[in-house]
Amino acid sequence: MHKSEKVWLTISFGMIMLFMIATGYQAFALGMAPPGGVELIDPQKVNETAPFDQPGIKQIGDNEYEVVMTLQLFSFTPMELEVPAGATVHFKLTSKDVVHGFQIVGTNANGMIVPGYITDITQTFHEPGEYLVICNEYCGIGHQVMATTIKVY
Amino acid sequence: MEAINANAASLKNKANEILGVNPEDAKLTKSFLLVSFVALLLGGLFGLLQGINRAGLLELPSWLNYYQVLTAHGLLLIVVFSGFFMIGYFYSGLSHTLGGLLPKVRKLGWIGYGLSMFGTVLVVIMVLMNEATVLFTFYPPMMAHPIFYFGLVFVVLGIWSCCIGAFIQVADWRKKHKGQHLPILSFFATGAFVLLLGCTLFVAVEVLFLILPWSLGWVDTINVMLARTLFWAFGHTAVNIWYLTAVSAWYVIVPRVIGGTLWNDTLTRVVVIALVIMNITGGFHHQIVDPGISDTIKYMHVFMSLAIGFPSLMTAYALFVVMERAGRRKGGKGALGWLKKLPWGDVRFLAPFIAMLAFAPAGAGGIAQTTFQLNAVVHNTMWVVGHFHLTLGMSVAMTFFGISYWLIPFISGRVLTPAMNKLGVIQTYIWAAAMVLMAFAMHTAGLFGSPRRTSYTTYGDHAAALGWDPYMLLIGFGAVLLTIGVLIQFYAVIHLMFFAPKGQTEFPIAPKEPGDVTGYWTERWGVWVVLLIIVVAMAYVVPIVDMIVNAPPGSPPIRPW
Ligand code: HEM
Ligand SMILES: [Cu+2]
Ligand SMILES: [Cu+2]
């Protein structure tokens, strides 16, 4: 093996390890793990299961909110939320039918909503504005209209 | 009797070496390649419809809606074009380097061809009838017509027949050539078929045991997460097999086309072995933002996915050295003078060369989007579509195109004329420019949040969505250019197969560098397969058991289109 190859492979190896360490550090030390969640729910009984029997927004702290939201062909419940700037919002999301996506355009909030599971996503809205919320997983013929907004005032 | 047989066999070998091609084996490969390029043509036309729809210039009619088109595009290109090409190419490689296919292997090849063709036709009919508008991922609980799933089963059975044929061929050769190394192209083929069998097992379990009983109404509900996970164990690996197929040409064919020698044979085989062992476990990187999978499991999978970056980086170095060495031997001087000595006007080199270049940004983008936090930025956005048009649409497809300019004349007993070569060079530049343009626009639109798998929409003229429009126009423009490329490529294939002047074409396999000895330990396929199984078990047993034991109540079928 040539010296230049050893150097190249060492750099390659180092780069991959660096990515791993950065990912791990952010996920486990800084609490920036990807969206997920391990709570389960019966996808055919979402309407009768707390807290999804009462979807909506609730203040749970100083400028901190919890949003309980269901996704279904081709809408979000509740629609058109409003929160003050700087608010941290904890979304609890589940699907009543097929797989959907949940993405707040212009932020890093992005996760899959799989029937039977509850996805947790947390987002702090620093800037005021009207944020576009979309379904980013194909869910059927009306997928392209499945959207709502979050107003940050 | 034995002796006569052996004599006859060696005569046949000689004939093969001289003529270079066994006509019966050639017919098999020709059939696979023809299907492959018809799929490219149809898939490309569907791609055009998608591109101009997303540019906002075309509303698709209700009898051919966007998602139907997208389902067909995905399946035709990621499964049919790539899969049929891979099998046709490696079967001719096995035939050429192992002294002709055994009659039973050829038969298995034809059976595989028939089964996959039949399955493909069923699938395509269902998609065109709007009975299977589920995209190539067919995530339950969205449910297609059962015939769609039966079609998939036939495709998989066909693939298995071809895998088994390849294994028989290789085992037979090894038995007759004890102590010898499998020729390098067949070594690649063995690795690719091992992976192909390994990954299709997952999707077979998904379709046979989860989806079919449910779609036939024998059970009421399905385990959605399990199906998804099995799918990605397959889907992720499949695209990596197409990549491994392209890599085989970079290592084995390209050095010959440029008049050079092979890279270090042992290290090449190490790359193959590494790609085989570590590949299947990357599947979860498609599920980084899924619920129901713990962060530790996801982290392990990110690690396993990134590990594949290492053999790829080894490859980058190897190819660079091979080209530099060949260029310098031809008298290229200075830091970059050797570059001038490479045959830029030869499509058999130019196309795979650009394919390799594309893998640099493609691989870098892949590493970036595999890490947790960056994945959340781009997951399910157009970024991802840009990423796999670089990896598949450029690295893989352009390598396959480059191969077609010698493989098709080779199997058809024809030659590549200078005029056809020139057309190939033009097609290569068109394709490269168009893909770069389209992929750039897709990556950028994705960073701004534009979702993938979504027909043209402005979300009620929301400002953010309107901001994507310029990039979407570029995508449409790229799609038009690409379609021109597809048409030229298809024309070239038909011409080379049926109309080019008769003559003999070489199957270009580079010789070893003098003095390069291969470590015989690389031949221990039994060990590699066991390691593969161990790695797959490490990655999948815990999460899959968890998904079954801790499953939520299942989902009934839904048809949302
Ligand atoms: C004429 C050339 C091509 C054009 C114009 C084109 C265009 C497109 C467009 C616009 C999308 C859809 C984006 C979306 O809404 O998500 C797409 C998706 C896709 N393309 Fe292509 N593409 C071309 C060639 C290829 C090739 C050669 C391959 C692979 C070998 C490929 C594989 C795919 C796959 C797998 C998808 C994703 C399907 C899905 O999300 O379900 N494309 N393509
Ligand atoms: Cu959707
Ligand atoms: Cu993958």
TrEMBL record, chain B:
Keywords: Electron transport, Membrane, Respiratory chain, Transmembrane, Transmembrane helix, Transport. The chain crosses the membrane at residues 32-52, 72-90, 110-128, 148-170, 182-211, 231-254, 266-288, 300-323, 349-368, 388-408, 429-451, 471-494, 525-545. One of its GO terms (molecular function) is cytochrome-c oxidase activity. One of its GO terms (cellular component) is membrane. Residues 32-500 form the Cytochrome oxidase subunit I profile domain. Pfam families: COX1. GO terms for biological process: aerobic respiration. PANTHER family: CYTOCHROME C OXIDASE SUBUNIT 1, CYTOCHROME C OXIDASE SUBUNIT I. This is Cytochrome C.
